[in-house]
């Protein structure tokens, strides 16, 4: 944009040139010296002056336009000259460049997303107030480099970052930038670490409970109950139940780790759904009958082969049907249904029981390891708290979510889908 003052200056110069020419010609006329050569000379001087003025004005206009473009770039990201600032903009991790006055000179897209769209130009300490960050930035800007330890930044949405502050050496090309502040996201790392610690604590606790009970009975059998044959028989029975629970728990833990190892290997074999369901029903029929529960299979025409790891899907059906038989009300029916999905590309398997149902607030956490709605009831039924976690992990490998629908007092339905093998197109 042209500045009004410069415009006025330009007009003044043109006017004053014209006035000077008229004045000179008038002077020459008044002394009777208006010659052709003289007039030509005055005209040439005035023309050269005007030409110089025009060149100057155009140069000014060009410079104005250049600085406007520079300003525009600068307001977008905050850095005009720093080499490669545009490349930094696309970095997935948040990054700030801070100048000698501790002001943010540049913030890439991720940093603006994290800290706010208008952070450029503001004091860096407005966003990172931790004392170790303040110390690190102060030291780096005053030329004292060193190890400032882990600077952890956690957002209100529970995202965590490890922040590194590194120096930028002063130079012509860095636009006064003195430090780089780099954010490395550690949210999922911390979550995994926490899950691992929780898992070890839970698994140890689950094993410790039966082990303590077994040790207690051994002490009693060797002490007060040494000659009591009735107590021997009773206590040995309990010890066997507890030992079997430990074996089941260890088996489930081993299954989980085996399943996790195959998580990213998509199954490629085909399995007959009807055979899988029938074999699981036959295995569990007798156990379910002990509580008066009937296991029923309802199958839709056309349902047969699916792409699946048959051992793993057998495990899924075993866990879901065992749970249904364990938690359903006595003398009810548990129904397994296999039907074609709406697109015809999947078979949907559902297991429905007529049990107590599960309250909505538990549904989201039900597949977590060791999560139980009623811990005492689960333990009494011989549960390890790992059955649904195993189901979820197997289904993850089969690219299917586990859908749980439940209504208190009515019952629960667990369902998942398995793909039907697609016929290969004919070779031409
Ligand atoms: P568990 O070994 O305790 O059965 P699971 O992971 O198989 O562990 O199940 C987790 C919890 O989910 C169970 O403790 C139980 O509270 C609840 N649950 C699972 N299936 C059913 C069901 N069909 N009806 C009611 N509650 C169920």
Q: Helices and strands: which structural class? A: alpha+beta
Instruction: Give the fraction of residues assigned to helices.
Output: 40-55%
Strand content: 15-25%
Largest sheet: 5 strands, antiparallel
Spatial order of the strands forming the largest sheet = 2-1-5-4-3
State the distance separating the first and last CA atoms: 67 Å
What's the CATH superfamily of the largest domain, by name?
A: Histidine kinase-like ATPase, C-terminal domain
Ranges with pLDDT <50 over ≥5 residues? Answer: 1-5
Query: What ligands does this structure carry?
Result: adenosine-5'-diphosphate
Radius of gyration, rounded?
Answer: 41 Å
Beta-strand segment tally: 12
Instruction: Please work out how many helical segments DSSP would assign.
Output: 12
Count the domains. Answer: 4
User: What is the CATH level 1 assignment of the largest domain?
Assistant: Alpha Beta
Q: Indicate the overall shape.
A: elongated
Instruction: Provide the succession of SSEs.
Output: HHHEEHHEEEHHEHEEHEEHHHEE
* Architecture per CATH nomenclature, i.e. the level-2 architecture of the largest domain: 2-Layer Sandwich
Q: Give me the CATH fold name of the largest domain.
A: Heat Shock Protein 90
Average pLDDT for all residues: 87
Gist of the model:
The protein is of the alpha+beta class and 428 residues long. The protein contains twelve helices and twelve strands. Helix 6 packs antiparallel against helix 7 and helix 7 packs parallel to helix 12.
Descriptive key words:
428 residues, alpha+beta, Beta-Lactamase, Helix Hairpins, 4 domains, 5-stranded antiparallel sheet, 5-stranded mixed sheet, binds adenosine-5'-diphosphate
